[in-house]
Amino acid sequence: MSSAPPKSTPEHAKKARRASAAALAGTSIEWYDFYVFGTAAALVLGDLFFPSDDPLIRTLSALGTFAVGFVLRPVGGILFGYIGDRVSRKTSLLITLLMMGGATTLIGLLPTYDSIGIAAPICLLILRMVQGLSVGGEWGGAVLVASEAAPAHRKALAASMVQLGAPVGTILSTGVFLLIPDESLLNGGWRIPFLLSGLLLVVGLLIRLKLEENEEFVAARAKREAAGREAPPVIELVRRFPVLNICVFVACFAVSGVYIRNVFALNLAVESEGIPRQLFLNALLAGAFAQLIVTPIAAVIADRVTVHRAQIWWTILYLIIAPVPLLAAVSSGNATLIYVAVALSFVGHAAYYSTLSGFLTTLFPTELRFTGISLGYQLSGSLVSAFVPILAVTLVSAAGGSVVPVQFLYAALIAASLTAIVLAPRVSRRETTRYENSLCSKSVREPGKTSYVA
Predict the structure, then answer these.
(1) How do residues 245-268 score in pLDDT, each as one tens digit?
(2) Is residue 408 predicted with pLDDT exceeding 90?
(3) At 168, is the pLDDT very low, low, confident or very high (cuts 50, 70, 90)?
(4) DSSP per position, 313-335
(5) Cα separation of 35 and 196, whole Å?
(6) Are 15 and 149 in contact (CB under 8 A)?
(7) How far, in Å, CA of 439 to CA of 453, rounded?
(8) Is 149 exposed, middle or buried (0-12, 13-18, 19+ CB in 10 A)?
(9) For residue 103, how many other CB atoms are within 10 A of its CB?
(10) What is the helix (H) or strand (E) element at residue 115, kind and residue range?
(11) What is the mean pLDDT of residues 31-53?
C-alpha cells in the first residue's frame, strides 16, 4: 500500500525531525488563526458585525460565519490534495500557510458594521471562506510531511505532532484573549489576536521553506506515472474507494467535540450561565496544556500496540469521560467542576485525536493519501463540525435551557466514529487490493509501461 519506510540513518533522522517540526509549527499557526476566529465569534463578533436587539440572533449570526469557514474545507482538501499528490507536498503547505495567515491578518484590519454597514459582515464572510479553503489543504499535507518522513516504528508519533498544533493553537489564541481586558475587547482589543497572525506567518514560512520532498512520496509518484494513471486523485478515490471514503468521513465525526467545548460551551457559559469569561478561558487554557502532555504519550503507545487498536481504545475513553461531565459542569456554574470537566474533555479528545491522523494514513496508497485523508476529514468538518455549535444552541433553546440533548448529540458523534474506526481497516484492505490489481492490469495492457508493484 505504500513504499518502503525511510532508512534509519542520521541524515534521514534529521530530515524526519525537520519535517515534524515544520508540520507542528505550520499547523499550530493555522489552528491559532482558526481558533482565534471561533473565540471571537463566541465573544464579540456578533456585537461588532451583526448588530441585533435579539441576543440569540446575534449569537447565531456570528456562529453562522464561523460555520461558513468549514464550507470550503472539502474544496481545499481536493484542490491541495491534487497539488500534494501530483506535484509537491511542500508547495501545497506553503500556499495554505500564506492564505490562512493573510486572511486572518486582514480580518484584524476590517472596519465593523458601525463604520461601513453591510459591507463589514460580507468582507468577514469572504475572509472566513479563505481560511476554510486553507485549512482544507493544511491538515492532510502536514500529517503526510511528518509521517512519511518518519521510520516505521515512529509514524504515529510523527503524525501526532500535527495534532499538537490544535492545543498549541488553543493556548496561543486563548492566551492572547486572556491578556485583553474586558473593557478593551469591544473597543479595538479584539483586533490584536488577528493582527498577531502576521508575525506568526513569517515564522512559519521560514521553517517550511527548508522542507524537502520525502523519498516515500517521490517513489510513489514515480510508480503512478509508470502505471499511466492520469485521473485526478479525487476521481480515483470516488471510483476505487467508495466505502472507505465513508468510513473516514464518519471516523472524523468525533473531532467536532472540540467545537462543542471551545465554541458552544464557551458561549453557553458566558452568555447563558453568567460564568466569567476569564474563568472559562482559563479552563480551556489548562485543558490545552493537558492535551499537550496526553497527545505524544497516546501516540507512543499506539506505535507499540498498533495504531488501529490504540485508536479504538482512545475513542472509547473519549466517549466515557467527555460528553456528560462537560456540559453538566457548565450548567452547574461551579468553578471547580468546570475545570475538572474541561480537563476530562481535553484528555479524551487528545487521546482520540492524537492517533487519528496516523490511523488514517494507513488506509490509502501513498499516491492518493493526501486527497484520501483530506477529503473525508474536511467533509466531516464541513457537514458536521461546522453546524455542531449552531445545532447545540438550537437544541438548548428548544429544550428550555436543558443541555441533555447536546450531551446525547456529543456522545452520538463519538460513537459513530468508533464504529467507522473498527470497520475501516478491513474495508481498506479489500478496496486497496482491487485498486492495485487495476494498476497491474493497466500496465500489462500497455506494453510500454512499467508494472506497478505495491
Answers:
(1) 999 999 999 999 988 998 889 888
(2) yes
(3) confident
(4) HHHHHHHHHSHHHHHHHHHHT-H
(5) 13
(6) yes
(7) 9
(8) buried
(9) 23
(10) helix 113-116
(11) 78
Q: Which residue has 534521514 as its cell numbers?
A: 12
The percent helix, strand, coil of the chain (3-state, each to 5) is: 85, 0, 15
pLDDT score for 452: 30
Sign of CA dihedral 411, 413, 414, 420: positive
pLDDT of residue 424: 97
54-57 long-range contacts (CB < 8 A, ≥24 apart) are: 55/271, 56/393, 56/397
Convert the pLDDT of each residue in 75-125 to its tens digit: 889 999 888 888 888 888 889 889 988 988 999 999 988 888 888 888 888
Name the grid cell of 271: 452568555
Pairwise CA distance, residues 261 & 3, whole Å: 39
As a whole number of angstroms, the distance between CA 378 and CA 386 comes to 10
Give the HSE-up count for residue 296: Cα atoms under 13 Å, Cβ half-sphere.
10
Given a contact cutoff of 8 angstroms between Cβ atoms, the answer to whether 346 and 287 are in contact is yes
Contact status, residue 139 vs residue 80, Cβ threshold 8 Å: no
Q: Is 166:29 a contact under the CB 8 Å cutoff?
A: no
Q: How far apart are CA 300 and CA 413, in angstroms?
A: 26
Percent of the chain at pLDDT above 90?
35
Q: Are 335 and 286 in contact (CB under 8 A)?
A: no
Cα–Cα distance between 59 and 45 in angstroms, integer?
9
Quote the CA–CA distance of 425 and 1 in Å, as a whole number.
12
Q: Whole-prediction pTM value? A: 0.80
Range with the lowest mean pLDDT among 9-23, 146-160, 287-301, 408-422? Answer: 9-23
Residues 6+ apart with CB under 8 A from 116: none
